[in-house]
Amino acid sequence: MKLGNVLPDWMWEAGLAGLFLLLGGVASWAQQPTLASSSQGDATATAIRELQQQVNELRSAMAEMRAESERYRAENTELRHELQATRGPSIASTGSPRLGVPPQDSYQTGSAADTNPAPAQSQHGNRTASLDDRVASLEESTQLVNSKVDDQYQTKVESASKYRVRLSGIVLLNLFSNHGATDNQDFPSFVTGPSAGTGNFGATMRQSEIGLEVFGPTLAGAKTSASLQADFAGGFPSTWNGVDSGIFRLRTASMRMDWKDTSLVIGQDNAFFSPLTPTSFASLAVPALNYAGNLWAWTPQVRVEHRFALSDDQSFLIQGGIMDNLTGEFPGNSYFRVPGPGELSRQPAYAARAAWTHKLFGQPLTFGVAGYYSRQDWSYDHYVDGWAGMADWQIPLAPRVTFSGEFYRGRAIGGIGGDISQSVVFDGNPASASTPVRGLDTIGGWSQLKFKLSNTIEFNAAAGVDNPTASEVRAAQASVAYLGSPLLVQNRGILANVVFRPRSSLLFSAEYSRLRTFELYDVSNSADQFNLMMGILF
Q1: 315: number of Cβ within 10 Å
Q2: Which among 202, 368, 369, 431 is least buried, having the fewest CB atoms inside 10 angstroms?
Q3: 267 forms bridges with which residues in the sheet?
Q4: pLDDT confidence of 268, banded at 50, 70, 90?
Q5: DSSP code for 477
């Protein structure tokens, strides 16, 4: 008997449907692990790829760190060799331990059995030693990096622009003792009267200086830069003990554009036609031997320089420019600017210089010649032509001995440090339109001998003279009654000093100087100064 004949049709159909549903569920249940395992495999592969990428990145980073470590290790080795060389061969021959390196004897103690440990102990000891070496190397590298960072931090000055700024200057103390009457107590220029019964002692900080240098962008192939220098020698405030509170004063402020062989300088700068000055820390507010043979001026100017390279050790320099036309007078007003005789001429002063330089004993051997012209209007259509011809030299006589100096011949050059600050003389009342005015002729110069005993000690001796034409001064003696001051016909100066610099930023100096100034009819007065100095440069 067949089963289909016993069961009803509806039960048979229901059973078949249930059987199909059961089989579908079993198949679905059987496929789920397969899908899950496939999805899980894809995620695992992705994770493995990410890990491999991270490992590769770590390997490259480790390679960079290893290369950096090797570089620092090489630099440390060079530093150790330099330190060992400075200590001398005696220390190296004694087997003394070097910086950061343990002595060799520490590896040679113990018995022979101790020097041949078991392989496992030897491998462990090598790993320990290797780890210690790495730690020591890392510490040395860290110290080196920190020192370099400290150096960079020390030289960094924050500015409003992205360009580098450098701060420099000197904090200088002058202790001075004078015998004689001079125009200025702390840095005198000439003598004003007899020395009998006169003298003083004092101290000043007003010759301290502050400087700023700015290194700007490159423009049209030229490197741009600027500098500013100031001190506290601009006078004294009207207050208690004002002599110790010098007024802040601008010395120089200039901008430069430097190409390979050409430079353009704009601003208030040194007199480029008289580039040298005697070495002295007793007179920084004004150059040493000023009005005693040393021409100088901090004058607004525009100049161009061009350099010719003749050979590896020879060069030729040409300079030329225009300057504010100054004649040496004090300002007529303390606030409002009043034009002087040079500016009243409606034209600037002109100057040019040429110089040849050659290397001798590792130092520059230089000879230069220069010219200067100034048109001046002394009111009432009294025009004077100021001019000067100059020569300068710097000659190394030996590796540590240098002879330098300048010479000039000119007329009406009180504005650049000649004529003992007297550009002209009057043959009568200066306020009268009928009084003749004549430019004062003069001749002068200075020379210095420098001897460098060592890199820290040097000796300097210098002498100079400014000698206006006495006959012209005598012809103007009638103006003495109107001017109320004597007319000077000659000013001589000598100095000798020693400069000791135990460090590049620290100096000590002692100087003796003597001035002798001649008036009309062979009347002369002298004054002496002894100066002790201590300064810190920054």
Answers
A1: 18
A2: 431
A3: 254, 301
A4: very high
A5: G
Q: What is the pLDDT of residue 44?
A: 57
Contact 303, 318 (CB under 8 A): no
Residue type, 405: G
| Six-digit token string for 319 | 């300079």
- Quick one: tokens of 174? 């002058």
- Tell which phi-psi region holds residue 482, choosing left (phi > 0), alpha (psi between -120 and 50) or beta: alpha
Cα distance between residue 352 and residue 61, in whole Å: 60
Query: In angstroms, what CA-CA distances link 525 with 23, 181, 199?
Result: 134, 9, 14
> By the 8 A CB rule, do 298 and 252 touch?
yes
Find, among 504, 513, 450, 495, the residue nearest to 170 by Cα: 504
Residue 494 tokens read as 């000598």
Strand, helix or coil for residue 163? coil
Nearest CA to 420 among 300, 515, 347, 340?
515
Closest CA to 304 of 262, 272, 351, 354: 262
443 vs 21: CA distance, rounded Å = 129
Cα angle 72-75-79, degrees, rounded to a multiple of 5:
135
List, for residues 323-375, the tens digit of each pLDDT value: 999 998 888 888 899 999 999 999 999 999 999 999 999 899 999 999 999 99
- 321 neighbors 353 (Cβ within 8 angstroms): no
Whole-number Å distance between alpha carbons of 194 and 191: 8
Residue 51 β-bridge partners = none
Nearest residue to 461 via CA among 404, 381, 387, 527 = 404
Assess contact for 400 and 451: CB atoms under 8 A: yes
Round to whole Å and give the CA distance between 480 and 414.
Answer: 18
| Single-letter amino acid, residue 457 | I
Nearest CA-CA partner of 493 in 191, 148, 107, 259: 191
Pairwise CA distance, residues 28 & 428, whole Å: 131
The residue among 318 and 431 whose pLDDT is bigger is 318
- What does the pLDDT look like over 44-76, one tens digit per residue? 566 666 666 766 666 766 767 777 767 767 776
Give the Å distances, CA to CA, from 58 to 51, 54, 55, 346, 500. 10, 6, 5, 74, 56
Determine phi and psi for 204, rounding to 5 degrees: -150, 150
Dihedral sign computed on CA atoms, order 92, 97, 100, 101:
positive
Closest by alpha carbon to 288, among 508, 463, 533, 421?
A: 463
> How would DSSP label each residue in 49-118?
HHHHHHHHHHHHHHHHHHHHHHHHHHHHHHHHHHHHHHH-HHHHHTTPPPTT---GGGGS-S-HHHHS--
Q: pTM here?
A: 0.70
Task: Give the Cα separation of 233 and 248 in Å (integer).
Answer: 7
pLDDT range class, residue 19, cuts 50, 70, 90: low
> Is there a contact between 321 and 351 (Cβ–Cβ < 8 Å)?
yes
- The helix (H) or strand (E) run that includes residue 532 is strand 524-537
